[in-house]
Automatic annotation (TrEMBL):
Its cofactor is pyridoxal 5'-phosphate. Belongs to the class-V pyridoxal-phosphate-dependent aminotransferase family. Csd subfamily. It catalyses: (sulfur carrier)-H + L-cysteine = (sulfur carrier)-SH + L-alanine. It comes from Denitratisoma oestradiolicum. It holds the Pfam family Aminotran_5. Its EC number is 2.8.1.7. This is cysteine desulfurase. Keywords: Lyase, Pyridoxal phosphate, Transferase. SUPFAM superfamilies: PLP-dependent transferases. NCBIfam families: sufS. Residues 26-394 form the Aminotransferase class V domain. The keyword Lyase applies. One of its GO terms (molecular function) is lyase activity. GO terms for biological process: cysteine metabolic process. The lineage of its organism: Bacteria, Pseudomonadati, Pseudomonadota, Betaproteobacteria, Nitrosomonadales.
Length: 406
């Protein structure tokens, strides 16, 4: 296979040629949201300028064209995550809505004393929906702790699993630490106790290959905007047999078969879970984004990003007063760190002045910050279009921070 040509890929992303404070943009906030390639931007424009129409209802040409494009996007998602069946792909707003859908619908089978197991490294969107569910159903939330390297402690995870565990909800790749969880093993352990598993794939989808059949997870959630697609669109994958048994999440148009005041029947999968007019342009754009990413070769992209992370980690180790937060053996795409004596927000502000975009804060993972006794970290996160020169720009900018805060 051809080597990964990062400079050619950069030309696919129009925004990368812009300047910030009259300096070239160095965009290292990809874990928050990724930039969009021209093919995704063009496809949204084409939809609105050529065949904008509502889907699934109209028999006129535009509606059929829009319906076809939207349903082809579902096929692209199915291919991307290797789902067995297209009706297992439910379009939602994003990871957050996907998790809330499962908490609301699947959650109705939980009762008092039933347990949900999450990990200490979860994003708030994989914590709060379960807390709300526990309040509604009298269930109990258990938390598997992490070690000082930011890895899940396997013995504790196993110890916390039991016959009362109905659901395990955990991230594939931590957005605050970059830790990759050994999912396959954890899912086998959960299944041995009869628990269903929901995987938060928001960070993993752009960086790690996803094969929901190989993982054998019950649910997998991810967001379009982190995988080079539009905002406001995301995916919930669920095993068909489970989805078929689950009650609808929201009521409205498209999710019904027959409505009368005597009673209503629901549509087939996946439409049962897709009430109302969806983000049509977003869905079509997500399909294009995933097809684009796959066309580059996921392994080549992952190798490029891993090289960037390794290089950044080496440079971090050579930077006095810089402490990396999250030193797991298996990591991807994310370097979280603190600079002694400088608040993360000051670091972020000075980096911005140098054209370098990073995230400073708690990364919607306050329990992770609590674990490390920090209010915030600085997070540089890499995407397929980042370069070694940009890593150098990051460290040059960090040297400026040190000049200002000696
Ligand atoms: N989980 C993880 C691990 C994330 O990084 C994010 C986004 N920061 C989410 C869930 C939530 O995704 P969204 O805001 O797109 O719903």
């Amino acid at each position: 296979t051809a080597p990964f040509d990062v400079m050619a890929r950069r030309r696919d992303f129009p925004i990368l040629s812009r300047r910030v404070h009259d300096l070239p943009l160095v965009y290292l906030d990809n874990a928050a949201t990724s930039q969009k390639p021209r093919c995704v931007i063009d496809c949204e424009t084409r939809y609105y300028s050529e065949y904008n129409a509502n889907i699934h209802r109209g028999i006129h040409s535009l509606s059929q064209q829009a319906t076809n494009a939207y349903e082809e996007a579902r096929d692209a998602v199915q291919r991307f995550i290797h789902a067995a069946r297209r009706e297992e792909i439910i379009f939602v707003r994003g990871t957050t809505e996907a998790i809330n859908l499962v908490a609301d619908s699947y959650g109705r089978r939980l009762g008092p004393g039933d347990e949900i197991l999450v990990t200490e490294m979860e994003h708030h969107s994989n914590i709060v929906p379960w807390q709300l569910l526990c309040e509604r159903r009298g269930a109990v939330l258990r938390v598997a702790p992490i070690n000082e390297a930011g890895e899940l402690i396997l013995e504790d995870f196993e110890r916390l699993l039991g016959p009362r565990t109905r659901l395990v909800a955990l991230t594939h790749l931590s957005n605050a630490l970059g830790t990759i969880n050994p999912l396959k093993r954890l899912i086998v352990l959960a299944h041995a106790q009869g628990a269903a598993v929901l995987v938060d794939g928001a960070q993993a989808a752009p960086h790690l290959g996803v094969d929901v059949q190989a993982l054998d997870c019950e649910f997998y959630a991810f967001s379009g905007h982190k995988v080079y697609g539009p905002t406001g669109i995301g995916v919930l994958y669920g095993k068909a047999a489970l989805l078929a048994e689950m009650p609808p999440y929201q009521g409205g148009g498209d999710m019904i078969r027959q409505v009368s005041f005597a009673g209503t029947t629901y549509n087939d999968l996946p439409y049962k879970f897709e009430a109302g007019t969806p983000n049509i342009a977003g869905g079509i754009g997500l399909g294009v984004a995933l097809t684009y990413l796959q066309s580059l070769g996921l392994a080549a992209v992952a190798a490029h990003e891993q090289a960037l992370l390794t290089y950044a980690t080496v440079r971090a180790a050579a930077t006095p007063g810089l402490r990396v937060i999250g030193n797991a053996r298996a990591k991807a795409s994310i370097l979280s760190f603190v600079l002694d004596g400088v608040h993360a927000h000051d670091v972020g502000t000075i980096l911005d002045r140098e054209g370098v975009a990073v995230r400073s804060g708690h990364h919607c993972a306050m329990p992770v910050m609590d674990h490390f006794g920090l209010p915030a970290t600085v997070r540089a996160s890499f995407a397929l279009y980042n370069t070694h020169a940009e890593v150098d720009a990051l460290f040059a900018a960090l040297a400026k921070v040190r000049e200002i805060f000696p």
